[in-house]
Amino acid sequence: MRKMGNAATPTVEITLEDGVYTLKTVTTFKTTEIKFKLGEEFEETTADGRNVKSSIKLEGNKMIHEQKGDKEKNEKDSILTREFTDKEMIMECKVEDIVCKRVYKRQE
């Protein structure tokens, strides 16, 4: 499963309509989509099937996405930081002391 994820070339589309953001990630293997309002907690099913409570806020050119796992199931919390530039989006995912980064090139 991890090898398939690393081989995938995802496309991420973020839209805003009437105060509601939609973040859609599409790969050849799976499509995920979340809808949210900034600063409001919402239920999310992650790409790996976990049900988490999430909230997203903007700080400058960064979108900070906090996911809280189910403590009864010993699930860990994670923070996804998406930094936007003119040419790319840099996503960093942190779970405790483990960090990964992925760079998405902007399409015209």
Automatic annotation (TrEMBL):
GO molecular-function term, one example from the UniProt record: lipid binding
Lipocalin/cytosolic fatty-acid binding domain residues: 3-106
Protein name: Sodium/calcium exchanger regulatory protein 1-like 2
Family the UniProt entry places it in: Belongs to the calycin superfamily. Fatty-acid binding protein (FABP) family.
Transmembrane helix recorded as keyword: no
Alphabetical keyword list: Lipid-binding
Gene (name only): Fabp1-L2
InterPro entries: Calycin (IPR012674), Fatty_acid-bd (IPR000463), ILBP (IPR031259), Lipocln_cytosolic_FA-bd_dom (IPR000566)
Keyword Ribosomal protein: no
